[in-house]
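Private note to self, pasted from the team thread so I don't lose it. Backbone tokens:
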């Protein structure tokens, strides 16, 4: 099936690893023109090498920038647009987990704020700075990478839970604000555990092999991003799509 991305311009923050890198790979496979943003120059070089090797005919560019620092992100967006010529779809995949496992009275305030700075402010700035370009885009959309942690909780994940809950509401607010005047759809994908470097580090494991709970691949989540961004999903707006194998639907009733 043609998802409608051939020749379209895609910008992905957090595109050098994990879900962001997998999403960039999938967009390139649909003959889109792809620009990725990440904080690490080393990871950027590695990601571009991987993507260009896999898709030698595709236009794939990258720029180093911090999503939570407005001037830095603006420079990165400008660099991407100078190469691609515009943006039709933007994906915010940049995020951090912070320290997991600490109870509320042991979470440092500056660490709590840092998670909100990257996960929430970063998403806001990504929208703010790409909006002038998306207004000119073809069938434009913005997709955030949220989490089931915006809907359910576990002890020791306070800062992360708060940030992902904010993204769920940000998705709703942006979908209302941007769709009618500009035709820009805004949705988010909210997975449970995904096998990424961030997840392995946060959970203190080297591998998810053999665990007794479901774990998605970055590609699993990337396909959901493409599904929501596709113009074939033009009726879908303001949705936070849970990808948690139905765990949110389970009752605690002992039956």
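Design output:
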């Amino acid at each position: 099936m043609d998802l409608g991305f051939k020749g379209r311009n895609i910008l992905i923050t957090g595109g050098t690893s994990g879900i962001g890198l997998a999403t960039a790979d999938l967009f390139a496979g649909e003959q889109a023109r792809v620009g990725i943003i990440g904080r690490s120059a080393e990871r950027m070089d590695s990601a571009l090498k991987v993507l260009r090797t896999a898709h030698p005919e595709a236009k794939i560019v990258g720029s180093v920038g911090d999503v939570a620092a407005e001037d830095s992100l603006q420079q990165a967006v400008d660099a991407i647009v100078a190469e691609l010529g515009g943006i039709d779809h933007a994906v915010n995949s940049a995020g951090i987990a912070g320290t997991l496992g600490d109870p509320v009275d042991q979470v440092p305030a500056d660490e709590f704020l840092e998670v909100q700075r990257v996960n929430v402010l970063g998403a806001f700035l990504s929208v703010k700075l790409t909006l002038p370009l998306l207004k000119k885009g073809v069938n434009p959309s913005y997709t955030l990478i949220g989490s089931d942690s915006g809907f359910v909780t576990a002890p020791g994940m306070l800062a992360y839970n708060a940030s992902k809950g904010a993204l769920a509401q940000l998705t709703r607010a942006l979908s209302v604000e941007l769709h009618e005047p500009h035709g820009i759809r805004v949705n988010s994908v909210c997975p449970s555990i995904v096998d990424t470097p961030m997840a392995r580090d946060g959970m203190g494991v080297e591998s998810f092999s053999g665990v007794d709970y479901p774990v998605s691949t970055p590609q699993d989540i990337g396909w959901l991003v493409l599904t929501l961004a596709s113009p074939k999903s033009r009726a879908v707006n303001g949705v936070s799509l849970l990808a948690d194998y139905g765990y949110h639907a389970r009752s605690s009733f002992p039956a």
